[in-house]
């Protein structure tokens, strides 16, 4: 139940309020308020509405893309500057009503195992600019921030190095289902071999993360056939069985979407 | 706190608690067009509003968050009782079925057209991506979007929503507005929850956490003393009798085995206690103050466990019979602690062995049949439990008025509700009135009395208004699912494919109570076996009690599972024989003039009779599918690497009501201005039944559709009807309306003959409402006026009663073309063609909508849906995030419905049933197509990617 609703005047005030027990910052609210009608939403005594304080919009300057954390998924898809792989990841949240509200910052803040954006952002080497209480905004690699979230994300900064091939993927039962696995890959093809491969997966750890061990297997090789990628990737994944599928099946799906993403990225070259 | 914003272009300033959602605030302020389909999970979209021009879910926004924002609801688009371009297009494209989702669809398409006036199909899909509709199958939404888009540029644009039939008739066979569509598209008050008084009390139920447990004690004393609490009920202070919740004709073929609050909980969620309080919060607080002591028992969680020797006994009360004796050898003496079971007549049951009912019969000589076969195959098919998931969950509003109990119900069976509730609460039927409101989807689940008994009892005993609405979790766990079934099919055939013997052995899981325990599994046989002609055929049906959630009726009523088993087995036989599967069907199917001997054993509640079929359209339907899917050409290439293409085709059938058992009535009144009031007992669940009855009246009395109003499903004001089940709506209720109209017509002509001084034989009714003779004429208005005067004859009223011995079978042929991903096990339906004979299509586009909707439900059951339980019997996926019903994205790329009418001699204007049959084809057609693609037979639905990969040996 939300007993108090506050719209702070500044980020600093928001961060101060967030320190109170039971106070939670809300952007789009699509994660926090899920099931709220029947008392299932996140327990929060006080909702601190930060949406209007967060930067919003997508801008590109040189080889860098800056995404305001208050940017909705739909705005990201509609932006002219966002790369196709990022738009595809955002579009994998198939429900437009939710995309009209859900924010990029909220997606990182929710930090769910199968979140849509983190794998591709991790694969692209994104950093986050965030603000903690009583401190100037700081910039940190996204993987580090996801491992220990702090403060409010203001911006996501995505390098857009020329020649980068990247793709995102997702496995789910139906289009509007929560994913059982998400993936992002990026690499360069230099003389027909893979260079700088970054592989990130969601669904195989408490939150999405980079899989450098997996990436290392293909670094410096020609793009292997999908079946080979699946064969070597599957044993490196760990999953839990639940009503969405057995661990074995989830690993299989994870390996398949990884292989698909690596090949989809190559198709961009 | 105060929130100021713009609502439908008017500034408003509303006070609320900080935590109130926009959805609740809007409803509290009388905007009832926003609806709750998923308890704020964000997945149904029925609560949608446009916020600053964008479609968002109002359940996930707190009212204070809309400060300064611009909010639109559908009410804006239908203001002053007008219709927007989108609302009109949705009606024209026959997209308004139950209408519960329609306001959300209106908003989605308005938002779409505002940013993309000429949208592509993917854009339409994207616009509707957040809205779940369980009725329509989404396909006709694409037509609506196209119509609305074209009308933006050319307001006079129109297109036919379907092929038109019966050129000899003015309304029948033509598309006309569904009579309730305008109000539903505007989001007007129509549903039970829209009728609730502000001071109504709220009812909440404490469900059992255990699947199987004696309830040793319930302490309600603390709860009773809590603020706002009006009444607390439990096993100790509720009526002490058992009844069935099955809304079937009396005496029901379902055991009376349910007490309002059982002494033993038989599933997780079974009623333990209930609190009626002035606010939901007070009721919930009181519920948590109730303490219960359970004696937990081992649960029965599968058919195998139910059958096992020494299995825990789900019902251990005394067993008795109103008529007839217990089956020999069955146990009747209970353990003294459990509730009794009362059978109205023997169903070959032995509840203390968990056997709720059984039946077996057949024709010919099975041993001989199998001995004559060149090939014999035996396969077992499993159909897991699936949920009806009406977008409006079970809901009732009970109140007292003039010493009588009024139940505003969302039901398929108003008269059965009245009968069962009045008995359950111990009052006579004259004290109870049931008013069927618009029903936000029923699909069978609302054939049962799931909430009305309790709410009715509390309103009757406290005198307070009682509002009781299941949340989505309760809807999944404690309403009604399709029975789980395991069906073994044994087929014997000659080398040329001629069947020599067919054996179907069916075990069903009826769950904790026996509603529909015999009839649903029987229907799996009686709507599948008669499709093939074989001299030696036998079935054995057994229905078992378990401690899983309650089973009941669901569109198709068992037939989808029987059809899956038999049609897939036939395809497996064809593969074994190296034959084309359609050729094997062709060799063995029923056809015009066939004598269907097996119906001798499939009497549906009375002794069966073989039937000689009249004309049968199956041959033509198979032919069309064969041509359109290019069956005899090589399969097309897959759309991408790693995917394989496969095709499957099946034949299906259903019935049209229960001949010899059920009846329907209608009354048609001529009003003083010559217009008509149709009082129909029929329960329109959004299927268009009221439009059928209105059409019958307009057609026969030579009037226009707007000259007829329909009141239906009100036990006080309309005559008895068996209810909407067993595919009886059009056939029974529609025919009653036809008879009422013919009766009124005859009376009008008789009176007019006297006034005009011409013989009746010279008079005819011509449009619009004129009785014309050879010499003179009189309008119905004048006739009505004269009839009700002091010197007039009497008010002119027609009465119609319909019952029949005639069985009208709708048939169909369904074809699926799929692509299966060999690596991930995913299935994509690229083409789905449904050819169906519903006799004369009374409302062609609405009939097609029933088929699209039925197919999409069955696609969901085949590929995605399954109610899962843990090893304690707790349901695991009781919400739309975890239990996946199809969204617009799952609609097949080429989704084609074609009506192939074969008029029925007794049907209204030749009509037969249409909707239930539509669910019978998908599972076998898809299973066969999967085999055709990747070579594995899927014998358990849903055919999840994981099951497919396992079958392929990849997991
Ligand atoms: C129907 C439905 C479908 C969904 N589908 C998907 C899907 O496909 N993929 C997916 O990834 N998610 C999905 N979600 C989950 C959710 O919508 C997303 O995670 C969304 O991005 C959350 O954003 P929000 O702005 O609504 O976050 P909120 O609910 O406002 O907040 C989420 C969390 O993030 C924190 N937070 C918010 N903003 C910031 C910030 N700037 N910095 C740091 N922390 C912050 C909050 O405190 C909270 O803990 C779905 C949700 C629903 C209801
Ligand atoms: S009630 Fe809001 S999305 Fe379902
Ligand atoms: S018409 Fe869409 S849910 Fe019924």
Average pLDDT reading of chain A: 96
Total number of helices of chain A: 10
Parts with pLDDT < 50 across at least 5 consecutive residues of chain B: none
The 3D shape of chain B can be described as globular
Distance between the termini of chain A: 51 Å
Count of separate DSSP helical elements of chain B = 24
* Oligomeric state as shown: heterodimer
The main β sheet of chain B shows up as: 7 strands, mixed
Major sheet: arrangement of strands of chain A: 4-5-8-6-7
Question: Pairing-aware structural class of the strands and helices of chain B?
Answer: alpha+beta
Please describe what this structure looks like.
The complex is a heterodimer of chains A (269) and B (955). Chain A has helices at 11-18, 73-78, 84-91, 96-99, 104-110, 117-123, 142-147, 212-218, 226-233, 247-267, and strands spanning 4-6, 23-26, 46-49, 58-61, 64-68, 127-131, 138-141, 152-159, 165-171, 181-190, 193-202, 209-210. By secondary structure, chain A is α+β, with helices and mostly antiparallel strands. In chain A, a hairpin with a 2-residue loop joins strand 10 and strand 11 (193-202). In chain A, helix 9 crosses helix 10. Chain A is globular. In chain B, the strands form 11 sheets. A 7-stranded mixed β-sheet of chain B has the order 8-12-6-21-18-19-20, sandwiched between helices. The model of chain B has no long low-confidence stretch (mean pLDDT 97). The interface between A and B is large, with 48 and 56 residues. The structure holds flavin-adenine dinucleotide and FE2/S2 (inorganic) cluster (2 copies). Residues 36-38, 40-47, 57, 59 of chain B line the site of one FE2/S2 (inorganic) cluster. The site of one FE2/S2 (inorganic) cluster has 13 residues of chain B, from loops.
């Amino acid at each position: 139940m939300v007993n108090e609703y506050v719209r702070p005047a500044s980020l600093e005030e928001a961060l101060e309020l967030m320190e109170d027990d039971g106070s939670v910052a809300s952007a789009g609210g699509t994660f926090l308020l899920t099931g709220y009608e029947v008392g299932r939403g996140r327990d929060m005594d006080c909702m601190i509405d930060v949406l209007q304080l967060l930067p919003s919009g997508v801008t590109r300057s040189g080889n860098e893309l800056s995404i305001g954390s208050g940017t909705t998924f739909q705005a990201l898809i509609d932006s002219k500057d966002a790369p196709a792989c990022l738009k595809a990841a955002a579009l994998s949240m198939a429900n437009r009503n939710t995309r009209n509200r859900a924010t990029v910052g909220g997606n990182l803040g929710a930090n769910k195992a199968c979140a849509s954006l983190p794998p591709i952002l991790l694969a692209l080497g994104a950093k986050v600019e965030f603000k903690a209480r009583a401190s100037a905004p700081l910039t940190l690699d996204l993987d580090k921030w996801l491992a220990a979230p702090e403060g409010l994300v203001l911006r996501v900064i995505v390098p857009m190095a020329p020649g980068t091939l990247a793709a995102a993927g997702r496995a789910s039962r139906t289009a509007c289902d929560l994913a059982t696995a998400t993936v992002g890959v990026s690499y360069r093809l230099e003389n027909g071999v893979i260079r700088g491969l970054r592989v990130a997966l969601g669904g195989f750890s408490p939150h999405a993360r980079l899989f450098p061990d997996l990436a290392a297997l293909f670094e410096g090789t020609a793009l292997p056939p999908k079946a080979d990628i699946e064969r070597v990737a599957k044993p490196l994944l760990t999953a839990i069985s639940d009503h969405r599928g057995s661990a074995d099946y989830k690993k299989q799906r994870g390996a398949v979407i990884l292989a698909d993403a690596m090949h989809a990225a190559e198709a961009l070259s | 706190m105060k929130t100021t914003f713009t609502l439908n272009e008017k500034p408003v300033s509303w006070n609320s608690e900080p935590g109130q959602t926009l959805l609740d605030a809007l409803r509290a302020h009388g905007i009832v067009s926003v609806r709750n389909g998923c308890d704020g999970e964000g997945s149904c979209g029925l609560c949608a509003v446009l916020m600053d021009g964008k479609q968002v879910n109002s359940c996930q926004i707190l009212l204070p968050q809309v400060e300064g924002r611009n909010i639109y609801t559908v009410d804006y688009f239908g203001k002053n009782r007008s219709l927007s371009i989108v609302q009109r297009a949705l009606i024209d494209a026959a997209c308004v079925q139950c209408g519960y989702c329609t306001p959300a669809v209106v908003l989605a398409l308005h938002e779409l057209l505002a940013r993309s006036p000429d949208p592509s199909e993917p854009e339409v899909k994207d616009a509707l991506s957040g809205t779940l509709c369980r009725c329509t199958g989404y396909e006709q939404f694409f037509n609506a979007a196209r119509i609305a888009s074209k009308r933006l540029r050319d307001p006079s644009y129109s297109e036919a929503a379907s092929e038109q039939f019966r050129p000899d008739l003015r309304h029948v066979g033509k598309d006309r507005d569904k009579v309730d569509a305008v109000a539903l598209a505007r989001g007007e008050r129509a549903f039970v929850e829209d009728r609730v008084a502000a001071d109504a009390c709220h009812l909440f139920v404490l469900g059992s956490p255990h699947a199987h447990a004696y309830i040793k004690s319930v302490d309600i004393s603390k709860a009773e003393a809590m603020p706002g609490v009006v009444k607390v009920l439990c096993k100790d202070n509720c009526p002490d009798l058992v009844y069935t919740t099955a809304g079937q004709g009396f005496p029901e073929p379902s055991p009376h085995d349910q007490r309002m609050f059982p002494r033993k909980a038989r599933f997780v969620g079974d009623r333990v206690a209930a609190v009626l309080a002035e606010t939901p919060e007070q009721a919930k607080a009181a519920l948590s103050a109730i303490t219960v002591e359970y004696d937990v028992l081992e649960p029965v969680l599968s058919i195998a466990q139910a059958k096992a020797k020494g299995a825990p006994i789900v019902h251990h009360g005394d067993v008795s019979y109103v008529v007839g004796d217990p089956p020999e050898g069955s146990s009747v003496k209970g353990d003294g602690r459990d509730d009794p079971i009362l059978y109205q007549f023997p169903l070959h049951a032995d509840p203390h062995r968990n056997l709720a009912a059984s039946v077996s019969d057949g024709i010919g000589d099975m041993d001989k049949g199998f001995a004559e076969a060149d090939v014999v195959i035996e396969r077992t098919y499993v159909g897991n439990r699936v949920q009806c998931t009406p977008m409006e969950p079970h809901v009732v509003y009970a109140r007292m008025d003039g010493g009588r109990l009024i139940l505003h119900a969302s039901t398929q069976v108003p008269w059965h509700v009245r009968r069962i509730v009045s008995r359950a609460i111990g009052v006579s039927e004259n004290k109870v009135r049931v008013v069927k409101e618009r029903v936000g989807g029923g699909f069978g689940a609302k054939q049962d009395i799931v909430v009305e008994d309790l709410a009715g009892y509390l309103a009757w005993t406290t005198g307070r208004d009682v509002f009781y609405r299941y949340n989505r979790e309760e809807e999944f766990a404690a309403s009604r699912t399709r029975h789980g079934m395991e069906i073994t099919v044994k087929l014997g055939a000659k080398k040329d494919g001629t069947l020599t013997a067919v054996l179907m052995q069916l075990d069903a899981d009826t769950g904790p109570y026996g509603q529909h325990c015999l009839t649903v599994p029987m229907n799996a046989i009686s709507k599948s076996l008669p499709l093939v002609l074989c001299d030696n055929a036998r079935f054995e049906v057994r229905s078992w009690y378990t401690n899983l959630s309650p089973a009941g009726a669901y569109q198709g009523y068992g037939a989808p599972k029987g059809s899956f088993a038999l049609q897939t087995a036939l395809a497996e036989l064809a593969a074994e024989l190296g034959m084309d599967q359609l050729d094997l069907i062709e060799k063995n199917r029923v056809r015009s003039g066939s004598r269907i001997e097996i119906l001798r054993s499939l009497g549906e509640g009375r002794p069966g009779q073989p039937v000689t079929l009249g004309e049968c359209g199956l041959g033509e339907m198979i032919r069309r599918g064969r041509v359109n899917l290019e069956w005899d050409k090589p399969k097309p290439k897959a759309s991408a690497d790693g995917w394989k293409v496969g095709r499957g085709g099946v034949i299906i059938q259903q019935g049209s009501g229960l001949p010899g058992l059920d009846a329907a009535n209608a009354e048609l009144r001529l009003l003083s201005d010559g217009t008509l009031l149709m009082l129909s007992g029929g329960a329109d669940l959004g299927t268009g039944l009221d439009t059928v009855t209105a059409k019958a009246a307009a057609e026969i009395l030579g009037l226009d559709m707007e000259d007829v109003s329909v009141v239906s499903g009100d036990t006080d004001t309309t005559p008895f009807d068996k209810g909407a089940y067993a595919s009886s709506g059009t056939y029974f209720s529609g025919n009653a309306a036809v008879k009422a109209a013919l009766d009124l017509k005859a009376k009008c002509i008789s009176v007019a003959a006297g006034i005009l001084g011409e013989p009746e034989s010279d008079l005819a009714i011509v449009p619009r409402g004129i009785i014309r003779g050879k010499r003179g004429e009189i309008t119905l208005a004048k006739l009505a006026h004269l009839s009700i005067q002091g010197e007039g004859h009497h008010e002119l009223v027609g009465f119609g009663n319909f019952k029949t011995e005639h069985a009208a079978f709708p048939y169909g042929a369904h074809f699926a073309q799929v692509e299966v991903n060999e690596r991930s096990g995913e299935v994509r339906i690229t083409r789905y063609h449904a050819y169906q004979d519903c006799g004369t299509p009374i409302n062609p586009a609405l009939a097609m909508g029933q088929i699209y909707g039925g197919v999409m439900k069955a696609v969901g059951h085949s590929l995605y849906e399954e109610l899962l339980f843990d090893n304690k019997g707790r349901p695991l996926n009781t919400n739309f995030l975890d239990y996946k019903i199809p969204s617009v994205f799952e609609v097949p790329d080429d989704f084609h419905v074609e009506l192939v009418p074969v008029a029925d001699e007794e049907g209204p204007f030749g009509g037969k049933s249409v909707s239930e049959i539509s669910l019978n084809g998908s599972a076998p057609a898809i299973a066969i197509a999967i085999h055709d693609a990747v070579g594995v037979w899927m014998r358990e639905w849903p055919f999840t990617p994981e099951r497919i990969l396992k079958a392929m040996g990849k997991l």
